[in-house]
Amino acid sequence: ETMAQIAVPLLLVLLVGFFCQDAAAFRCCRRYSKREVSFTHIRGYAIQTIKRNCNIDAVIFYTSSGRCVCADPSQAWVIRILKCI
């Protein structure tokens, strides 16, 4: 095997890893939404914890319209919805 046959796949793996990591940072909640979401519009959720690019704990609600809503996990309406799911 030549050096190019080894180097090109390795470079591709590194680039994909870099871009995937960078893309994950954009899915981070950086602030909370100001409006509440109705339980009937929620299709799922994810829990975000503070880490390198995500500076707040949050609940990310996925709505039926395809939106992501960042919610404060200490708010009563968020706790109520999580108990119902």
TrEMBL record:
GO CC annotations, alphabetized: extracellular space
Key words of the record: Cytokine, Signal
Ranges for domain Chemokine interleukin-8-like: 25-85
GO molecular function: chemokine activity
One annotated GO biological process: defense response to bacterium
Signal peptide: 1-25
Record InterPro entries: Chemokine_b/g/d, Chemokine_IL8-like_dom, Interleukin_8-like_sf
Protein name (record): Chemokine (C-C motif) ligand 20a, duplicate 3
Record organism: Electrophorus electricus
